[in-house]
Structures are given as structure tokens and as C-alpha cells.
Amino acid sequence: MCRRWHNLLLAGALILSLLLAPMVAQAQLESLLLSAARSQAAKDTGPKDWKMYKGNAGHTGFTGERISFPLKLIWKNTLEGTPDNPASPVVADGVLYVITGGRLYALDASSGTIKWRYPAAAPLDSALRTSPAVGDDLVYFGSASGKLYAVTKDKGQQAWTFAAKGAINSSPVVDAGTVYFGSDDNSLYAIDARTGGFKWGGAFRTQDDISSPPSTGGGNVYFLSNDSNLYAASVADGSIMWTAKIGITRRNDTPLALGSTVYLASVNRIYAYRGLGGSIAWSCELPCDVASIPAAGTDALYFMSTDNQLYTIGLNGERKWNKPFNIGSPVTASPVIVNDTVVIVGKNGLIIAIDAQTGEVKWKNIVAPALPDPAKPETVDFSSPPAVSHGTLFAVADDGSVYAFRGDAGDSSAPQISPVWPKRSGIVPAAPPMDIIATVVDPGAGIKPESIAMTLDGNKVDFDQLPERGIIWY
């Protein structure tokens, strides 16, 4: 009996081993691919271009470049604005490409000087809600009219257009000679980057609009349809590899491809799907909704919530920080990761850099509007992620202002203090109580709120402030 029981145990163990072997092999392969992706990201610390939305075809929002903080403003150029502008800047070969005010602009990345704009005569008559993407010789962007435009990098001349049957709000991705983008005609397109012709012989059709950017990795293109499905299609011929039912989806939810894993934030959950087969590796429920597309560092995801908190979750699904970091201002733009630093831009002129490991603030700046009026303090909003290239951080505000910051630049300006109240022509009490209101901004390096002091008759007094608007009052 003992021998028979022992044999049964051995047989059971053998069967279990055979059943588990493929799962173990897949897990080992995924671990190797993820480790390789992490290792490559950690080693890739040199200067590089930022050619498309979130920096690369996987939309990780990561660069291994090392830049020092605090950053200082090196130039600013104010163009025509676009309310809630979702178009992120991109950089290639020393040129910054920006979509704002119905045009594509090419600016010298070192000086902000306009090299060309398209169209040259007047803005396009349809809304532009995509980031540009840079290929070998052309720059691509979509429009609400359903056209994908291809414009030459050197002179800004139209090379060709491709007409979809619905609005294009999906930022294009350029990978290995192919431009991928979605349209509100329920289709994902794969277009020859040089000629503008079909690569698959036709579009990949779903049951609803595709309004968010696709991503590529591991031989697949990943995209989310408003039919509540995440799709994986072969980049070779567009054949479907797998689908995953998401449930509730939002128009701007975007898959992120890293190694052999596809990450997706939707409503109040983060999902990690295996690129091979589409099964769920892990998922995580959050106490509130996700407000921004995650960015992926070497070991964790970083994303904003609707209650203005920055969350981080390890690439394996485990919590990384003890608690989220309160940004203090609404943020809808995806973070970007600059080596070991998370950089976030948001509403009310916020630009903030946070240590990716400790969650400590490295630098914070509140930028002022293009035409500030001290009598009517206003704010400027950032609705799209910044870009980082060759040591420079670029950001585009909704009012059309384009900013360039560097860590190795000198501080170009002193803090600017503008009185709001009392007015010079008004009646001022001879003694307290009295109201004193002013704005304090530093367009160069930003203001540390804790460094501000107010004195009255030579004595320090307590005061209140709104750092996100640069307002202090007594």
C-alpha cells in the first residue's frame, strides 16, 4: 500500500509538473524579456530624440537621459493657443515640432526660433487633436477632417495626405517604415510611411471608434477601441492575435507596451496583459479613477488620479510607495520619466519633478500666462505631456506658449513681484488691519513657496498664499 501510494504521488507530481511546465516557461520568458527591457532602459542614458507621443512606439514616456534639477528657462515662444490641447511636443535632429492653433510648427530646439509652419498661409479649418510623429524624412499628424498629413521635415511642405472615413484623434505611431493610427470610422490603419499607401491591403475594423494612440512591441500593434476591447494585431499583416474585454473604456485610454507586457489604465483599474496570448498577468483596483495614461520606468508605473494624487505601482503589480503623492493641482497629462525622476505638468501652470524612488520633490515651477495682468491674476494650463530630448525639457501650454528648460543653464530672470492690492490710486489705511495682495512668479527657475517672506514696517508677518497661482496676501 505504501509503495502504491508513493507511486501515485510520483505520478501525480509528474502530471502536475507537465501541466506547469508551459506556464513556468512562459513566466520565465516574460521575466527575461522584462529584465532585458529594464536593463536596456537603465543603460540607455545618452541624449536622444523624442520622436512621437510619449517618446517611443511603446508609449512608455521614459528616457534614460540624466538631467540635473532645478531646471531653468532657456527660451519661451508664444504661438496661437488651443484650449485643452492634447498634442504633445516631439523632437528630432535638433528641431521641436509642436501642434497648436491649427498648425504644425517646426522650432529650433536650442533657440525657439520658428523654422517653418504648416500651413503657412492660414490654420487648417479642422481641429488638430493629435501629437505629431517624426519619421525618416516626414512628420505625420491627423485632423478631425479624417486626413492624415505627411509634411517634409526640412521645409514643411505637404508630401501626401491619406483620407480616413472618420476623424483622426489618435496620435500616429511610426515604427519600421509604417504609420499606425486609429480613426472614428471604427478602424486602425497601417500606412506606408513613405508613400501613404495601405500596408495591410485595408484597415483593421472594430465595432466602434479608435480614438487613442496605438502602441507597438513584440511584433504586435496594440490598440483600444470604444467597443470596450483591447486588440493585438500582427504588424506583418494585420491579422488578429488576441482580444481582451475591458468593460468601461474612455476615449483617451492608451495601451503601454514594455517587454512582453501590455499595461492599460481604465477607470479605476490598472491591467497588465501578457503580450503573448493576451491573458492577464495582474490587475490592481484603485480607490479613485485614473486621470492620466501611465508612464513606465525601469521598475514601476507612475500615473495621476482624479483626486490629484501621483500613484506608483511596480511592474509586477506590487505597491512601491507607502502612499501616493499629493500634487495639489489637477493633472490630465501623462507623466514622463527622466531616468530617476518623474516630471509632471498640469493645470494652473504646474511643472514638478519628483524623485521616482523616494517621492520627494526635486523641483517645482509655476509658469505665468503669456500676457499676465497683475490686476486679474490668471493661470496657464498644460494638457499634454512634456518631451525630453538632449538635456532639455519642452512643454506646450494651452495658451500657445512653448517652454524649454535645462538644468545646466543659468537663471535668466529674477522673481517678479507685482502688486494687486492696494492700488496706487486707492485709499490705504494708516495702520492694520489692511489687505495686501501681490503676485510672485519666477519664469526662469520657479518659486519655492516656503522661501517667500513678507515684512510690514520691517517686521515679518504671517500671510497666506496660493502657490499654484503665484498669489500671496495679508
Question: Could you give the topology of this structure?
Answer:
Elements: H1 2-43, E1 62-63, E2 72-78, E3 90-92, E4 95-100, E5 103-108, E6 114-118, E7 133-134, E8 138-142, E9 147-152, E10 158-163, E11 173-175, E12 178-182, E13 187-192, E14 204-205, E15 215-217, E16 220-225, E17 229-234, E18 240-245, E19 256-258, E20 261-266, E21 269-274, E22 280-285, E23 295-296, E24 300-304, E25 309-314, E26 325-326, E27 336-338, E28 341-345, E29 350-355, E30 361-366, E31 387-389, E32 392-396, E33 401-406, E34 416-421, E35 437-441, E36 454-456, E37 459-461, E38 464-466, E39 471-473
Could you give me the name of the CATH homologous superfamily of the largest domain? YVTN repeat-like/Quinoprotein amine dehydrogenase
- Percent of residues in β-strands: 35-45%
Q: What value does the average pLDDT take?
A: 88
Give a count of the beta strands, DSSP E runs of length 2 or more: 39
Identify the CATH architecture of the largest domain: 7 Propeller
Tell me the number of helical segments per DSSP (H or I, 4 or more residues long).
Answer: 1
How many domain units? Answer: 3
Task: Examine the coordinates and then state which fold CATH places here, giving the name of the CATH topology of the largest domain.
Answer: Methylamine Dehydrogenase, Chain H
End-to-end Cα distance: 90 Å
Helix vs. strand class: mainly beta
Q: Give start-end ranges of low-pLDDT stretches.
A: 1-16
Which outline best applies? globular
Q: Helicity, in percent? A: under 10%
Compute the gyration radius: what is it? Answer: 25 Å
Give the spatial strand order of the biggest sheet: 1-27-28-29-30
Q: Which class of the largest domain in CATH terms?
A: Mainly Beta
Biggest pleated sheet:
5 strands, mixed
